[in-house]
Amino acid sequence: MKKKNAVLSMILFLIxxxxxxxxxxxxxxxxxxxxxGNIKQGLDLAGGVSITYQVVGEEEPSSEDMADTIYKLxxxxxxxxxxxxxYQEGTDRINIEIPGVSDANEILQELGQPGSLYFxxxxxxxxxxxxxxxxxxxxxxxIYVLNKTIDELLADGSIKLDGTMVATAxxxxxxxxxxxxxxxYVVELTFTDEGTAAFAEATQRAYDRGETIAIYYDGELxxxxxxxxxxTGGQAQISGMADVEEARTLASTIRIGGLKLExxxxxxxxxxxxLGSDAIKTSLKAxxxxxxxxxxxxTVIYFLPGFTSALALAMYVILTLLVLxxxxxxxxxxxxxxxxxxxxxAVDANVIIFAxxxxxxxxxxxxxxxxxxxFNKATSxxxxxxxxxLIAAVVLVVKGSGTxxxxxxxxxxxxxxxxxxxxxxxxxxxxxxxxLGFKSEKWYxxxxxKKPINFLSKKAICFAISLILIVGGFVMLGxxxxxxxxxLNYSMEFRGGTSTTVTFNEDMTIEELDxxxxxxxxxxxxxxxxxxxxxxxxxxxxxxTRTLSVDEREEVSNVLADxxxxxxxxxxxxxxxxxxxxxxxxxxxxxxxxxxxxxLIYIWIRFKDIRFATSAxxxxxxxxxxxxxxxxxxxxxxxxxxxxCMLTIVGYSINATIVIFDRxxxxxxxxxxxxxxxxxxxxxxxxTLSRSINTSFTTFIMVAVLFVLGVxxxxxxALPLMVGIVCGAYSSVCITxxxxxxxxxxxxxxxAK
Length: 753
Prior knowledge:
- It is a single chain.
- It is built from 21 helices and 17 strands.
- It is an alpha+beta fold.
- A hairpin with a 7-residue loop joins β8 and β9.
- The longest helix has 50 residues.
- It starts with a helix and ends with a helix.
């Protein structure tokens, strides 16, 4: 690169870095558009809206109907935020907590009032009219009323479908077939399999008779469309909307009406953050300290390329904040931890590249050639490792729900941006520095040929250690089950708990609650998982804990009365369900299984050897089981962060494995045919050893700083991750290559026989 072009590239990069950094930190205009401060924050960081619905009817709803309704509501509110929580309170109430919003009435209007939804034929089998025109409204539309009660319509078969048979309903706009090509606003419906069959039958009947089908919701007929054709494909369209708002309202009405239970709003509040501002400050401090340590480490180890990676990492962080803002994703405290972790993982691609450059310089290549060849040779490992993790993220977005979906979205952003900054930004900067005159090898470091370490000679010991850890973990799961009834220390997010609403005599800040109230309650519950939320505009505080016994509830009342003068009448306690429902757990498990299968197929295709894919998946399972064993032994609380932790380890594990397998694949092609297979494996692991150590160290540092400075919930996320990072480094170096070698030689031996 000529010096003039190099100077231009550097200037453009610095302008982009400063400009985008200013937007990310300060924002543009009075609304501070693009600012990190405008990123939608979760309940733990900024609070949101809490809505409580009561089941309509005198009979107590079944647990199955409650679970089904909660799951469907969870899927609905994901449109506002993947971090929204839906859980049961008592026996017949459902709570919805949506972060990042402050207007309960707006949410209630958009979400709709959950009620009964029915599709009613115009006439019954005897030809009697089920509904008729009662007048015309101010917009010139007909007003319809029912001629019978709902019970009568159900009895005579005039109700052809109900809301549970509608899978989705969305507002849309189309263009009619007239010469003017006018825009029409419609609602597009998609039915379940049962609904598809029922709607086909209903539209066939209506079409043959030239009739309409009325949509009844929550006490009124909201739409009476004419049936213009028989609809058998499971999709339908309701036309005639005046504008897009009317279409959206009707779509929302139909979606919320597809619940098994009829609900009515009981109360709605704006609630404050679950964590104080100190939690955010300490996490940001941890991010800055960790980032500085990583940058210093990279510069010391890799000289000029390391300094270049520090600049690229700064761009990575800025782009991540801008994309989170642009896609309106919800950021939680675990999300901040995930970004901090991704900074450490983003170093990985740079480490692979720099190690390759040093290797080329060690063979006598010029600096310019070494840079080109280093990037080219590192590309396959970087692409395969990141694409494999990206496959998992895409599957989790499509099949997952709740926090799993939110985590996967953040993961996708991290993967794409880290590849871009490593493959594009770092390359441009390195070439620019070279063009500016940094052409001496001393700026880059020369790789020395390393004496191969005989890792395979220790494979039996390594396999034994792994087996002991995994079996020991299963034993501890059994011990925990026998002693506590649960294999792990599940938090209230997994097994429910008690929600206590307390009206204090004076307003208390979250910091005061954390310092004065929480320690007293932790002494009663015996764990560190006590969650507090302030109700905006009042002195009410919602306190969530594990399930409290009658005696413990009384003890809580006494403590609050003795220390804060709270009267017994100002304390209300209710049992609440898990915020992670069984359906959400099932979604997560199915998503992980599907993702694993797709990863296995991708690795099989790319490496043209099923043994590579099998070894990678086995190593992945190994890392997950070892971390699970740690949860069992340490009795670390298992909550929403548990899912994020395990998914992070899956991505981290597969990435580390791919790097070694890529080197084995390369050496198989380049080394003489008669080279011993064990020698190839040992050489490959040795050649990638510095990458394994350096990447693990930088990632570990980021998480370790977070653990030291973070609040309790962050520490419970960081500690298992630290174990996972160490385990991932161990398995990639000591297990994966050995597994592939054993399978390769065993299958080869059998074929020879």
